[in-house]
Amino acid sequence: QAGETDDIIRNKVGMLLDNDITPILCCGENRYDREKGHEHDVITDQLDNLDNYLSHMVIAYEPVWAIGGNTAASLRQIQDMHAHIRKILSYNNVPILYGGSCNPINATEIFSDPNVDGGLIGRASLIPDQFIKLIDIAKLAKF
Question: How far is CA 109 from the centre of its chain?
Answer without folding.
Answer: 16
